[in-house]
Amino acid sequence: MLIEILKSKLHCVRVTEANLKYMGSITIDEDLMDAAGLIAGERVHIVNNNNGERFDTYVIKGERGSGCICLNGAAARKVQVDDVVIIMAYAMMDYEEARSFTPKVVFPENNRV
C-alpha cells in the first residue's frame, strides 16, 4: 500500500509578487527550494493564511538569495503581495517507509533560510 505523506514545507513565507501575465506556477527563491528539498516542476500545495485559499501549482526556480515568492497566472488571483503562505509538497511512500520518514520543514525569516 502507498500513502501520501508530507515531504517538505516552507512555513509562513511572504508573497513578494503576484504576476497575472505569466503561465501559472509559483516562483520560489532557489535557496528556499534547496532548504525544503523542492525541485523545479514539482507540484506544491499552497495555503494562504490571510484569506484561507488553498490551491496547488508547480515550482519555478527564482533568483537565489532574492527571497522571491511569486504566484503566477491564475494563482496570482488567490493572493496579494505580503500575504503569508505555507508551501507544502507531498510524496508517495509505502507504509513502512512513511512511518520512519521525516519531512523537511523550513521556518524562514523574512523569506531567507
Describe it for me?
Strand 4 and strand 5 (54-62) form a beta hairpin. The protein is globular and about 40 Å long. It has 2 helices and 8 strands; from the N terminus they run E-E-E-H-E-E-E-E-H-E. It has an 8-stranded mixed sheet with strand order 2-6-3-5-4-7-1-8. The protein has a single domain (2-97), classed as Barwin-like endoglucanases (Beta Barrel). It has 113 residues and is mainly beta. Helix content is 12%, strand content 48%. The model has no long low-confidence stretch (mean pLDDT 97). The chain has helices at residues 30-36, 95-100, and strands at 2-14, 17-19, 25-29, 43-48, 54-62, 69-72, 84-94, 104-106.
Would you identify the regions where 5 or more consecutive residues have pLDDT less than 50? none
Q: How many distinct domains?
A: 1
Overall CATH class? Mainly Beta
- Provide the helix percentage: 10-25%
Can you tell me the overall shape?
Answer: globular
Q: Mean pLDDT, nearest integer?
A: 97
By CATH, the architecture is named Beta Barrel
The third-level CATH topology is Barwin-like endoglucanases
Secondary-structure blueprint:
Blueprint: E1 2-14, E2 17-19, E3 25-29, H1 30-36, E4 43-48, E5 54-62, E6 69-72, E7 84-94, H2 95-100, E8 104-106
